Amino acid sequence: MASQSQNPQSVHEFTVKDARGNDVDLSMYKGKALLIVNVASQCGLTDSNYTELSKIYEKYKDQGLEILAFPCNQFGGQEPGNNEQIMEFACTRFKAEYPIFDKVHIANNPLLQ
């Protein structure tokens, strides 16, 4: 679940949980280009999406790109795993080096509304 300041003006004003349950203050990404993406391990596009995300991150991370991956199971039940399973899948199979966050729920997530 994301928390925010009273009247957020920027994504940098949110604090979210990473997949390990740690708080992450998104202000740490100020000055970087952000690609905030929904990911799912059982989507028909999973292989190509994770592969391309890893390629993009490798190519542009030194130029200030950060990919912030937020899994969600609300789109066709395509991400049924828990955070540990999601991390294992993304980091082992696709060598994801970018941060993966706690599984989000759109209905109560101010970042995604």
UniProtKB/TrEMBL annotation:
Keywords carried by this UniProt record: Oxidoreductase, Peroxidase
Family: Belongs to the glutathione peroxidase family.
Superkingdom of the source species: Eukaryota
Entry GO CC: cytosol
UniProt key word Oxidoreductase: yes
Swiss-Prot/TrEMBL GO biological process terms: response to oxidative stress
Protein name (record): Glutathione peroxidase
Single GO MF descriptor: peroxidase activity
Keyword Ribonucleoprotein: no
Organism expressing this protein natively: Actinidia chinensis var. chinensis
Catalytic residues of the enzyme: C43
PANTHER family in the cross-refs: GLUTATHIONE PEROXIDASE (PTHR11592), PHOSPHOLIPID HYDROPEROXIDE GLUTATHIONE PEROXIDASE 6, MITOCHONDRIAL-RELATED (PTHR11592:SF118)
InterPro entries membership: Glutathione_peroxidase, GPX_AS, GPX_CS, Thioredoxin-like_sf
